[in-house]
Specification:
The protein is an alpha/beta fold. It contains 13 helices and twelve strands. Helix 1 crosses helix 8 and helix 4 packs across helix 5.
Length: 334
């Protein structure tokens, strides 16, 4: 059996789908407050509605040690995909509790119960974007600077727990996906890109980064889980391109007007401050923070050659990815 954390999220749902399609037995962790809607919809969209019933769900969280012990003791493999993704300063403690301490708990218990292999879903946010002006690969080390978000730091520290577990005898794999495009919660996370553009987003950041289809991320994770390779890191990135190109492609597939206002450094500084003020008035979290605004201005390029060579893998094209998920978004609107 395979234990999966984060099974209700975008990546976790697609991992569950691919494992269930392969006939694997899965035990999936969900928080008491989480909804199964994303996961249920992912199975339905892929004509696998009946397979959804085969998932064994357990309620709990990453800091519930007895619950984790009970779950992991039943399994042979672990995929740790759960994480808090937040760029809000007030969530710093939660990032530590969930991303760092939670990962340490999963690793410790996996060691205790002799898990065969653990795959940890990290992020390109932990890679050395600030330590090189060249293409970022698995050999680029994280360099702490004032440009790194609390989220990036928390994921980096979580990786240190994974490598520590590796030194203590646990076979591990770390994957670092770039910006993941897929049909999750359309108003949260990277899936929000589709929603925002459909609703008439006018601005686009000038930066460049990597993008990857959630199908590719989940497919590669499943392949690496059962492959005789361990204690390695792999970047998962389908294409390096500008935010403008991606935004335009999404708008074209929706047959709506493209975002046409380029965010300048001045607009960036004004924008996140206005959004912060508005969030205080409306008593809700900002949609744009200083950290996300800074991220959109950067130009970063990532290499997936290592995993492509190992698996002889070909990533989906951006055109196909965007066309597919724009259709799903429209369908979900009813």
């Amino acid at each position: 059996m395979i234990f999966i954390t984060g099974g209700t999220g975008l990546v976790g749902s697609h991992i569950l789908l691919q494992l269930c399609q392969k006939g694997e037995r899965v035990l999936a962790l969900r928080r008491n407050s989480s909804t199964l809607e994303i996961c249920r919809r992912v199975f339905s969209q892929n004509n696998s509605k009946d397979l959804f019933k085969s998932i064994d769900w357990v309620n709990g969280d990453l800091n519930n040690i007895p619950m984790l012990e009970k779950c992991i003791s039943r399994c042979e493999y672990v995929i740790h995909a759960a994480a808090l993704v937040s760029f809000h300063p007030e969530d710093k403690k939660k990032l530590v509790d969930i991303n760092i301490n939670g990962t340490a708990n999963v690793m410790n218990i996996s060691i205790d119960f002799g898990i065969k292999k653990c795959v940890y879903v990290s992020s390109i946010a932990t890679l050395g974007r600030n330590s090189t002006d060249e293409i970022v690969d698995e050999n680029c080390n994280f360099k702490l600077s004032n440009l790194e978000s609390n989220y990036s730091i928390s994921k980096y520290m979580a990786e240190q727990e994974v490598w520590r577990a590796s030194n203590e005898g646990l076979d591990v794999i770390i994957v670092n996906p770039s910006v993941i495009l897929g049909p999750g919660d359309w108003v949260k996370g990277s899936s929000r890109i589709f929603h925002s553009i459909y609703k008439g987003l006018r601005f686009f950041p000038p930066g460049k980064t990597g993008f990857v289809d959630v199908y590719d991320v989940s497919a590669i994770i499943v392949k690496l889980l059962f492959l005789k390779v361990s204690n390695e890191r792999f970047i998962l990135n389908g294409i390096n391109t500008s935010y403008e190109s991606v935004f335009n492609l999404i708008a074209d597939n929706f047959n709506i007007k493209r975002p046409n206002i380029r965010v300048t450094p001045f607009l960036k500084e004004i924008g996140w401050r206005i959004e912060k003020f508005r969030s205080l008035i409306l008593q809700r979290k900002s949609l744009i923070t200083k950290e996300t605004a800074e991220s959109g201005m950067r130009e970063s390029t990532f290499s997936s050659k290592k995993v492509e060579k190992l698996l002889n893998y070909k990533f989906r094209t951006l055109d196909d990815t965007v066309a597919n998920y724009c259709k799903m978004y429209i369908k979900d609107l009813g």
